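User: quick one - fold this with adenosine-5'-triphosphate bound?
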Amino acid sequence: MIELKNVTKIYNPKKNNQFRALNKISLIINDGEFCAIIGKSGSGKSTLLHILGLLDTFSGEYFFGKRNIAKLKERASSKLRAAKIGFVKQDFALIEEYSALDNVMLPLYPIGARDKKKKAMTAIKKLGISHLAAKEVSQLSGGEKQRVAIARAIVNDPKIILADEPTGALDSRTAAEIMDVFKSLNSEGKTVIIVTHDLSIAKLCGRIIEISDGEIVSA
Ligand SMILES: Nc1ncnc2c1ncn2[C@@H]1O[C@H](COP(=O)(O)OP(=O)(O)OP(=O)(O)O)[C@@H](O)[C@H]1O
Ligand SMILES: [Mg+2]
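Assistant: Sure. Structure tokens for the protein plus adenosine-5'-triphosphate:
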């Protein structure tokens, strides 16, 4: 279970251009949930997802299971992130000149995992892209890149998968296929949280969390 209590995010806090992107967000997400975070552009969706993914600082409280994230040192939170969280960034964030396989293996180096190639191929197979493993990412379609990005996010078998606009750049058929991938990961027991501005995509998830101007309006 993850729980946020009065989480606030202020960008540039000490400057005169400071901006309150999240204002006192309180939220509980149980293990195994499949949630969509929706809201207009600039409402704070990515900011919230980055905080959930232990990728950004905040004020307030965040409990990840029994751990109080605000009290963890940077090294401990990196370790927790590497072990428990898979993150799919808004723009894939793949290394274009590497093969799909090499991209998927990347998260396994810092944690010193064994059998890196085998683990990466297992994730790649799960995404149905075994035939693309050796191909350079620059030569893949958007939907194929999204699958590589998801394979990389799940290679370490995380408990939670976070994805920022995973269908944003895809045609509706490819988007539906990617949503099926998340659905099946969720039915394996993983908690899945995606950000989308597309209500028809959000409706495929079990729960919709709507934010507006940095505040939760429904959850
Ligand atoms: N690093 C930053 N420094 C200052 N302001 C920021 C920073 N990142 C985001 N913001 C501001 O915080 C607000 C929320 O941004 P965020 O990226 O979370 O929105 P979003 O809901 O994901 O939008 P989109 O749908 O366009 O991706 C925006 O007004 C944005 O300009
Ligand atoms: Mg965003």
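One thing worth noting: The beta strands are 2-11, 19-29, 34-38, 59-64, 67-68, 85-88, 160-164, 191-195, 207-212, 215-218.
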